[in-house]
Amino acid sequence: GAGVSQTPSNKVTEKGKYVELRCDPISGHTALYWYRQSLGQGPEFLIYFQGTGAADDSGLPNDRFFAVRPEGSVSTLKIQRTERGDSAVYLCASSLTFFRDRGREDEQFFGPGTRLTVL
Amino acid sequence: KQEVTQIPAALSVPEGENLVLNCSFTDSAIYNLQWFRQDPGKGLTSLLLIQSSQREQTSGRLNASLDKSSGRSTLYIAASQPGDSATYLCAVDSNYGQNFVFGPGTRLSVLP
Q1: Distance, CA of B105 to CA of B87 (rounded, Å)
Q2: Helix (H, G, I), strand (E, B) or coil at B82
């Protein structure tokens, strides 16, 4: 596609519910990242995928958070038993590669985000 | 643990001024540094990426420099325009995990 897309754009849920957030990366991008951004702060890293595998999930705050990318393209971030503190904008990004020394091939392109509100 | 700070937190300038935004990071062992802009309620737009071996990158009216040894990067915006109003974020990709660590951003307002 032309850019990274995320659905839904807004999600309102009740405390304790389960939610899924979807990310469609740029076609051909092998690396995919999830971030969480609270109001007035920079994005906070959650997890990144290289292909189908989660290469680094050290940013996931606890075991209520899980993400998958079964075919190496679309990714889903899953949050169980949501809490009010989970309210934030969840951002997804993709890059062509993640070799960390390939210059613009590592450049991350972001989607518009999903605003999650837990009541 | 890598920490990224940005100064100032907010900046308001009249149209046409040249300005500098600052980004500092605590661990100089980085792969690259990327500057983004974020408009209210929107995602991030990549502006410039500087590899650790580079000193600067330029794109149009933007110039970003990197001094890895001192843990600093600056984003220079020439001849600012009202359309430049946004939050500017820097992010550092560290050698030792943690992936991209973002600063809190500088909120820029360019007044017509």
Answers
A1: 6
A2: helix
Residue in B4, B42, B97 closest to A56 by CB: B97
In whole angstroms, what is the distance from residue A59 CA to residue A74 CA? 20
DSSP for residue A9: S
A-contacting residues of B 68-97, CB under 8 Å?
Answer: 89, 91, 93, 97
- Across the interface, of A35, A40, A112, the residue whose CB is closest to B42 is A112
pLDDT at position A100: 59
- Beta B44-51 vs A109-110: how paired, if at all? unpaired
Q: Beta strands A75-79 and A65-68: pairing type? A: antiparallel
Is it the case that residue A19 has pLDDT exceeding 90?
A: yes
Q: Does B66 touch chain A (CB under 8 A)?
A: no
Q: Which pLDDT band holds residue B94 (cuts at 50, 70, 90)?
A: confident
> E-strand spans in B52-104?
56-59, 62-67, 72-77, 86-94, 100-102
Residue A31, CA distances (Å) to A60, B27, B73 in order: 17, 24, 25
CB burial string B28-66: b at 16+ within 10 A, e below: bebbbbbbbbbeeeebbebbbbbbbeeeebeeeebbbbb
Segment B1-35, tens digit of pLDDT = 889 999 999 999 999 999 999 999 998 888 889 99
Question: Per residue in A65-106, pLDDT tens?
Answer: 999 999 999 999 999 999 999 999 999 999 987 665 556 667
The one-letter amino acid code at A101 reads D
